[in-house]
Amino acid sequence: MAHSHLARSEKINGWGFVMPALVLIGIFMIYPIVWSLWMSFQTGRGMQLSFGGLANITRLTQDPIFIRALTNTLIFLAIQVPVMLVLALLFANALNDSKLWGRGFFRTAIFLPCVTSLVAYSVIFKSMFAGDGIVNQTLLALNLIDVPIAWLADPFWAKVVIVTAITWRWTGYNMIFYLAAMQNIDRSIYEAARIDGVPAWARFWYLTVPMLKPVILFTSIISTIGTLQLFDEPNLITLGGPSDSTLTLSLYIYNLSFKFMPSFGYAATVSYVIVILVALLSILQFFAVRERRT
Amino acid sequence: MSNPVAFLGRTAQYVLLSIAAFVSVFPFFWMVLGATNTSPDIIRGRIAPGTALFDNIGKFLTQIDLPRVLFNSLFIAGVGSALTLIVASMAGYGFEMFRSRVRERVFSLLLLMLSIPFAALMIPLFIMMANLKLINTYQAIILPSIASIFIIFYFRQATKAFPHELRDAARIDGLKEWQIFFYVYMPVMRSTYAAATIIVFMANWNNYLWPLIVLQTNDMFTMTLAIAALNAGYTPDFGVIMVGAIIATLPTLVIFFLLQRRFVEGMLGAVK
Predict the structure, then answer these.
(1) For residue B16, what is the nearest residue in chain A, using CA coordinates?
(2) ipTM, 2 dp
(3) Average pLDDT over chain B, rounded to an integer
(4) What confidence tens digit (pLDDT) does each residue in B224-246 have?
(5) Which GO cellular component does the record give, naming just one (chain A) (predicted)?
(6) How far is CA B17 from CA A105, A108, A113, B12, B178, in A?
(7) pLDDT tens digits, A270-290
(8) pTM for this predicted structure
(9) Which domains does chain A show, CATH number per domain?
(10) Is the torsion defined by CA of A277, A117, A80, A129 positive or negative?
(11) Residue B226 lies in a domain
(12) Cα separation, B107 vs A15, whole angstroms
């Protein structure tokens, strides 16, 4: 009797505490994600949608702008995430040294970019990479280039600006994760390696990196998810241009839905491309790190 | 430093970190300098304080209704953060303190849902808000943001350190479960709440895409939307934009410097 009363109270309270969150998640996440799957099979303009079967998928394969956006997004992903994570690892490793003078200063400085709002830093970068802007002036003064680079007007360099901007904003963020993980590694392992004459780069590569694998996995998954959804920077710095060279999938979905005559069904299909990519890449990264461990 | 290799290594370490620190901090200087310069000077790369500060501030204030925009941003970020903290911490507490097989399954499902991209939600959410006549309202921004799975996860992780004896003692004292949560758990976990507040407030304050879709008139604009609006067009006035960028960055910068340790703890919460 007393036991069943307790069990009942556990049940009521257990659900009671989680229910508000679950109801909200149901309304604002599960319902929309199912709805947009349904919508991705519908065609038409505005709110006048009708079932179109696989018409949207056929349209995807024949849509040069979609192919463009997909390619751009994958290029950003393939270049930006590895560059950023390697930099973050290097900075963390350099900072993980109790004898380093000015350690707190360096750590705070490198972390500072993640305090800025995406909109604010995007417009700041836009102004720095102007045709005669400070970046070109500096590179000219250092004799690194002879003529100014048309950062925002050239399809290749516009991509470089976007990659640079995102890397600036997020490297410190990832570095903090690595630094925290490094501080949990037992120092005596390094001492032993040092006494055995293992050089610094080898200690980094054969000791630190393998021990950081779970964190590296975590950061590469969140960075992948973030980069696949890239929207703010291209929309504010380059508006997806020049000639769609920085158009991302999210930006294309936004344009399809809210910029021109809305094409919600097709936009939903494009959004599911991101869903599938996120799922595939997360699984892939998970197994890649697992494989190497054994 | 008798060992030349060690000396070289140390030098390389300082060079690397100095460059990284310089590159990281430079845009902040550029923003502050920019606020004092005219737009043509900024895009010409003038790296010296100018005399246009008051002119830029004046133009900013005529183009943007600052009190209104600040109120919108603060209201959305403040109310949104408060609701997120209550709902998400309750859920994190519930999942951790009242275990059941079904709820563990539900929790695993939530973790999977962490990777659902917002791009796949925004169209149905927009139509939903249009049907509910909530376009261009605060509710449209706040409601979908409340049940943050990331924060639920964060609170569940933190709750693992909450001593069960405290709950048992409170039960013996005759407190009801909701009283234990509000009068025992919340005060004990205040540093977790502080760290979570920083993450949630920043995310709300800096949100751009969803407000861009849902907020449509100037009087509803948040700070981020106001800056984005200044940035639109062929010849944006960068001097004025920099004034806005400073105002948008200042709150998070101040929070960061005041609560640096909590700030970093909050960001690390997910991997503990």
Answers:
(1) A91
(2) 0.88
(3) 89
(4) 999 999 998 778 899 999 999 99
(5) plasma membrane
(6) 10, 11, 15, 9, 50
(7) 999 999 998 888 888 778 766
(8) 0.89
(9) 2-39 (no CATH), 63-293 (1.10.3720.10)
(10) positive
(11) yes
(12) 12
